[in-house]
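Human
Can I borrow your eye for a moment on a structure tokenisation matter? Give me a protein, with the fold worked out from its sequence. Write it directly below this note and I will take it from there.

Assistant
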Amino acid sequence: MTLRFGRELLMIPGPTTVPDVVLQAMHRPAVDIYEGELVAYTDSCLADLKTLFGTAGNTYIYAANGHGAWEAALSNTMSRGDRLLVLESGRFALGWGETASSLGIAVEVLERSFRKAVDPGAVEARLRADTDHAIKAILVVQIDTASGVRNDLAAIRAAIDAAGHPALFMVDTVASLGIEPFEMDALGIDVAMCGAQKGLMTPPGLGVVAAGPRAIEAHKSADLVTRYWDWTFRDGAEHYMKYCGTPPEHLLFGFRRALDLLLREEGLANAHRRHALLAEATRRAVAVWTTSNRLDFNIENPAERGNSVTVVRTEEPGLSARIVTTCHDTYGVRISNGIGDLQGHGFRIGHMGHVNAGNLLGALASVETTLHAVGIAFEGSGVAEAARYLGSETRV
């Protein structure tokens, strides 16, 4: 028996649900790429990205996914043979490092458990040992959707400063921009990048990058620059140069509408608060489910759990796949399997982007029903705990 007939609820950690008004904004004819309306769209989106990233630096929009934005950040600042340090805390900083390796950059990984955030003390110690400053850049993810971790960027910046190290500080915000506070300039971050398909509520296909003064200076001597990613070319006077050719018009129409939703209709501070409340509600539900002793949080320290996704561990072979499949095929809610170290041993509940309390509580109820259906017994109700928490935080 299936109860999935009806509108499917997408609760994966990206891509996220695209708002109807964003889809509607894209449903229109193409326009002139050289002048007029599209030029204004570009200018306003680049300006709004400065607000989102918290920077007075330069911003760039690419027809690319997050992996493309990774390459843009690297190729504009690094040279073949340069060395960089990857701060492991999940899967995606490692992926960024793999991109660097493919470009001819020497990559060193500061290893860390899949269940913990980056250790700033270890960062400081490694940088102090690099007395000749061979490390040219440091790569880290603010929130990793494979592990569910949130890294403390301020503490990492403090570690870099304490070591007196000049390496560029580069941050992946794919699963955090628009979701958690991010202040690039205040944190001394030199390069930040993101994809538009998660907290920015746009269909996949746009990668965005912000570059501060030290990154722009490094760009002047970087020898990995190619025409498509090149910041200098994209800073050119002609509009088509912003995209190295024809702009991705309809994605820009949607992106413009999504930015209006985030920055003007809801407001960035309100979006951060909404995500924090929904994330904590999810964690309270999961805490109840863990009383089964068959499920556990992947991230051990509650303070290190991000607000975009909650990652749950399952040690029994095949259990996570049964949960994910049943939740979708029987109840119509799509959550994700674990990846990386949790491949086959975990599931992930996304709660970012265009999601509200009703969406979340419905999803949690479906997951809880799934747990009953697959024979996982626990004390009480996670959904009740989530609802009780949200009610107390929004009391009228």
Observations:
- The CA atoms of residues 67 and 96 lie 7 Å apart.
